[in-house]
Specification:
- Helix 1 packs antiparallel against helix 2, helix 4 packs across helix 5 and helix 5 runs antiparallel to helix 6.
- It contains eleven helices and no strands.
- It is an all-alpha fold.
- The chain is 65% helix and 0% strand.
Length: 196
């Protein structure tokens, strides 16, 4: 029965036989809708790196058919960045930014894709949208560097200044990581006696 095929494919995956599950399910995966079969197919392809190229192609097909989600777009973006497919990165980040216009990390990836595709005018236009977004420290440094690489040092410095000001004049990761002062635990008189 065709309704059981995705479940049988999941059993194959559970038994470590993803190849059989993929071979069984692939002919049944719809190209014009997204349902449980597509989801299981992606799970199967995600189960082992040896399926990465097939997964990457499939995620692109879903995006082109407008059958994707932000999670799948993020997965495709991660793969596209690893493979340095910058045009594809730009297509993906453009979609993600439309769906999540205030997401600082997505904006970082979008700006990097614009830089890699030599779209400095578009990156310049986005500068005004950065104000008010929240960015982790790594994103701040990447965006700063993108604007420097695009030969826009005033924008780079203005962005960095705003972010430092917004973070109470610090971008130091120790603000977010507990520091343990081991010197407080030291017995100074014993340590001085040992040194002398």
């Amino acid at each position: 029965c065709a309704l059981m095929i995705p479940f049988i494919a999941l059993v194959y995956l559970d038994k470590g036989m993803a190849d059989k599950g993929i071979a069984l399910l692939e002919p049944e995966v719809p190209g014009n809708a997204f349902d449980f079969r597509n989801h299981v197919f992606i799970l199967l392809l995600s189960s082992n790196e040896k399926y990465n190229s097939k997964l990457f192609r499939y995620l692109g097909q879903l995006r082109e058919a407008n059958l994707t989600s932000d999670d799948l777009l993020s997965k495709e973006l991660w793969m596209a960045e690893k493979m340095m497919e910058w045009e594809r990165c730009l297509a993906i980040t453009t979609l993600l930014i439309k769906n999540n216009p205030q997401n600082g990390v997505l904006m970082e990836h979008h700006l990097m894709a614009l830089y890699r595709n030599e779209k400095s005018e578009e990156a310049e236009l986005l500068f005004g949208e950065l104000h008010g977004m929240e960015f982790p420290v790594n994103s701040v440094m990447n965006i700063f560097n993108v604007y420097l690489l695009l030969n826009m040092p005033k924008k780079a410095l203005a962005f960095l200044y705003d972010e430092i000001e917004k973070n109470n004049w610090t971008l130091v990761p120790s603000k977010y990581i507990e520091f343990i002062d081991h010197d407080l635990e030291m017995d100074y008189s014993k340590e001085m006696a040992r040194i002398q």
